[in-house]
Amino acid sequence: MDTILYNGKIYTQDKAYPHCSAIAIKNGVIAAMGNDDEILALSDGSTEKLDLNKRRVLPGFEDTHLHLLFYAIQASAVNLSGARSLEDVKNLCREKIQWAKQSGKWIQGVSFNQDDWDVKKLPTRHDLDQISKEVPISIRRACYHISVCNTKALEVLGLTKNISDEAKINMGFDADGQPDGLIKEDLQNLITEAQPLPTKEEIKELILLGLNHAAAKGITQVHSDDFMVLPGDDGETIMNAYKELASENKLPIRVYQQCLLWEDKSLERFLERGHKTGDDYGFYRIGPFKVIGDGSLGAHTAYMRKPYLNDNGTCGLARYTDEQLLEICKTAHNNGMQLAIHCIGDASLEQALNTLLNLQLNYTRTDCRHGIVHCQIMDNEQNDMFRRLNLLAYIQPIFLRCDMNIVDDCVGSELAKQSYNWRRYEDAGVHQSGGSDCPVEEFDILPNIEYAVTRTNHDTGKSWYPENKLTLEEAIKVFTYEGAYASYSENRRGSLTVGKYADLVVLSEDIFEVPENQIHNINVDLTMVGGKIAYMR
Ligand SMILES: [Zn+2]
Fold first, then answer.
1. What are 2-48's pLDDT values in tens digits?
2. Looking at this predicted complex, what is its ipTM?
3. Same domain, 335 and 420
4. 440 Cα–ligand 1 center, Å
5. Final residue belonging to a domain, choices 161, 194, 227
6. For residue 258, how far is its CA from the centre of ligand 1 (angstroms)?
7. Do both 454 and 404 map to the same domain?
8. Cα–Cα dist 279/496, whole Å
9. Are 61 and 216 in contact (CB under 8 A)?
10. Residue 312 is part of which domain span?
11. In terms of Cα–Cα distance, which of 142, 148, 70, 134 is closest to 110?
């Protein structure tokens, strides 16, 4: 045996054999399970033995919808959330000056909040000029709505003279009428567009940064939606970066690629190059064609059948007409792609359900595992269609932290209580898997599980239709087995079973024993993927 884990409380998620204390692993695969005596008897001179000290072991976590590369780009910026003064901001940014000069890049800071500072005043370009006048610098406020640039950055962005009236609306000016460095809302996109595209080597570094952070949260596979992060790239550079890392055996955890291809003909090009769901490069595999059906709830762009109650007249926005949606989904479906359609509003869901029904009736395929990402606002009839059409639901229980405060105002309580109804999915036997949509929410699985089983904000105590919650066993399945199922790998992962890969997580405390509202405080002590330790605390 290569490795033996013993003296643990192992929850296998395999109904035939739900609990054991020891596992033997060979060639990355579970070779035997049982009690300590049975399994330790299998050890030989070269066996690595790991005492679990009675800790709880679960199958490895999965996050079935996030944006890894986008997260990593943000994570590699200067984090200003801990700054307590303008001086702190300057010092944190100064650490990057040499790097910025050598690489020709900007210094970008994120998550500052002047309300946390000793002097609660927004900085100006003159403040940031004290860090550097040669290197462009921008810092973004924690709210995402405001950034401050130094003078060099304003020059690069063309925002120092002859400024268009349109741009002026989203800029700040000092008493002399000069730009003070503040830029707001969509104008901040200029900053993103001004950054040089990362090279493939840089992308590989970013991927590893993101995946190592995910491994530290017990995640053994991410389903990542990355393609549109690089303007102008149709996914090839990113896929090549992942493939190289996979062939170099450097990926610490598994990646199932969600392929967002929304530019004209980009799906066709993708298919012509021969890519398809299930293409297997070891730890990197090609997943579904990702389609964006509508917008978001907070911005009132999620597409609703009835107008928002708190926003006169608007129903949000559909990204496609019915015909367009059918056309792209048909192309993907007929070329062997799995489909994952982003729908938040009930009208968007209606469009998607009709599309998927049409495909199944007219272009029948077996085991296509199409699904809906987010699936938030809906009535019970739409919920029931998931089972009838055998669709996957990609849910983000952690979204309730924010959404429980806005959904009733947007759609009314009658529809709200039928929305985010994971209980009804579960009772119907729908395959629902869990994710974070990181960086929208952090990819911590344990707080996400807590929301699935409590539907309660542990800080405020506020609950939201708690009758629609899941049991702990169900929630664990959502964040483990169902992620494997959504990636066609439930026969190899998703439970701890002899013959499956040794993908597992060791927790600091027993999730079955701590109070439900304390689940978020449990730490991940160890993450193992294919028998190899991907993270140890
Ligand atoms: Zn997303």
1. 999 999 999 999 999 999 999 999 999 999 999 999 999 999 999 99
2. 0.96
3. yes
4. 8
5. 194
6. 10
7. yes
8. 25
9. no
10. 200-529
11. 142
